[in-house]
Amino acid sequence: MLLVVGQIPDAMLPALRQVHDQLASPRATVWWTGGDGDAIAASWPQAVVVDATGDVEAAIVAAHRGLISGTKRTEPPLLPDVDPVEWRGVGPYGHGGTGMTGGVPFGRPLAGRGDDLRDGLSLDVVPVWVGPFFPPFPAGLALKVTFAGDVVHAVEVGAYPDAGSHGLGGPLPDDVDSAFTDLAREPVTVARLELARAHHHLRWLTLLLHLYGLDALGLRVAGMNRALTPDRAPDVVALARRLDKPWVLKRSTAGVGSIGTEAAAQWGGPIARAAGISVDARTELAAYRGLNFTPLVHTAGDARDRWRQRLAETVQSLELAGRAGDATLEPGTQTEPPSPPPPAKLDTLLPSLLTGAEWGDAVASVVSLDLDFDAHLSREPEPVA
Fold this sequence. Notes:
alpha+beta; globular
């Protein structure tokens, strides 16, 4: 089963079709959309389209039962069955390469030599595209990663198209972060904004816990998030203490993805504050000064301090929401978003962070950044193999 939620920019549709064709048969697609279902039906004719208010769970179950029982036919491939490049008869042995093991036989790269970044041994390296639908990464991020074993030898940042660009589907209502988008056109109370910030951080935390195989704990955090109120601040404090045990997250995240002060300043937001930079847009707002708001900071700048920073800010947000009363920000006020916009120099900052890391730590580093491309960047994407 392939579930597509919301809008998919035109630039990402070829990669989505590739994800579809990589699913084993029998397969079916359910597309949950807040936009034009007819456009989806024209481009993805066999998809089951569910509108924003429809019962998407029932649609998934029904389609799956149909596949299993044989009453629903499997969806055919959406991409043509052609080789990625011409290779038949090419080269001295007719396999598309230059020599027995050189080149790109069958249109696919083979490993080549590269210096190991840890002990100087020369190992085979091979380039692999990761994204733009790699589950731990933010949707739209595509990286060309050159691997030497399980070590990231080099990284190139590929496409990260703006999710607001024209494409299939449409946005779905987001009750968690809509407070920050509503602020652009209408007054929003500080209490609502800070509760939305706390929701965002806990929702991100469930993704981090899933990445580390702590799904049972992640489900508990998700349950806390569904019933989150200002008086749950002590529960978040207790959660932070539990996560910081060596056998939970402390040992596995300490020292991972460390970002120095100079680089952290370019990332901004919780990433900068986790590296000791006390900068927060809320300090400039009278409504927050009246609540004695002071930015919180950590100092290590690694993955551990980034999740500790966000949990500390979750507690702070709940306390602010509890005492904010009817304090309100006027439409158009620039305030601190829950996650920072990707920096302008992402093409250099991200590779410098990931190069030399083992792949598991590299993935954890990206997740710890909580990148959000939805309204910040628009680029011409490179083709993703």
